[in-house]
Amino acid sequence: MSEINVYRVSSNLQYGGVSPTTRIKDGKRQPVFPNDIKLEDWDIYPVRLIKFTTDVNFIPYYAGNNFIVDETAKALLQPLIGACGEFRPVKVGDRLYWWFKCTARYDCTVKGMIEGRIGLPELNMWSEVNRWVFDPVKVRQAPAIFYPHEYPTALLCTDVLKDVIEKSGLVGLTFQHLWNSTTGGEWVKRPPLLGPVAEKLGKELEDKWEKNKKKYGLLYNKLKDKEGITLS
């Protein structure tokens, strides 16, 4: 039986980012996050565009691992991940993108073997996972993309999704290797927010913005209609 890998999949800030311009409010005028809005209540919201956002297929959306996809990426991925979530429209100028809201939850870890910092022991919810341990049998049956029970803000996938994306040549997603069915889990740690290492990472991000601007072009400059966009 061939090896199988698990990755954390996310959009990448080196390509910029898009988020709602103002705080979205529900029917009672209370502020809510996009994740809290039901599909039937979803609307086209004005957006804020980071000035370094480049014209790629996947762009970070509002927070965490969330991303929007362009028409090319949606056409490719909908048959593969359509059952794992919802494609919600996000208008950026005259272009239509889709935020993929993943709704798939899948439990495939080996209990008691994860390393990291647990937040709610009674619920087996973790605030940080440094080393994952997965059940190979369950992983082979996993959805193409999913949230794990222990860490429901991290989007995970296997080689199935990664191979499709990489073969397509689409740009904008990052795959962080977490686990291999033969060699086990890799040690991963959040990058620091302060200090020399954080400063170095910040400089590297700025360099990537400049390189990507030249390679892909800035999205804002390519839009014919910039209505509803705030540039930051």
Short structural summary:
This protein is an alpha+beta fold and 232 residues long.
What is the gyration radius calculated from CA atoms?
A: 18 Å
Oligomer: single chain
What does the main sheet amount to?
6 strands, mixed
**Order of SSEs:** EEEEEEEHEEEEEHEEHEEHHE
Measured by DSSP, the beta-strand proportion falls in 25-35%
> Structural class, from secondary structure content?
alpha+beta
| Overall mean confidence score, pLDDT | 89
Commentary on this structure:
By secondary structure, the protein is of the alpha+beta class. The protein has one domain (5-216). Helix content is 22%, strand content 32%. It is built from 5 helices and 17 strands. The chain has helices at 71-81, 136-140, 159-168, 196-216, 219-222, and strands at 5-11, 18-20, 24-25, 31-32, 47-49, 58-60, 67-69, 85-92, 95-102, 105-106, 115-120, 125-131, 145-148, 156-158, 173-180, 184-185, 229-231. The strands form 5 sheets. Strands 10-13-14-1-15-16 form a 6-stranded mixed beta sheet, covered by helices on one side. β3 and β4 (31-32) form a beta hairpin. The chain is globular and about 50 Å long.
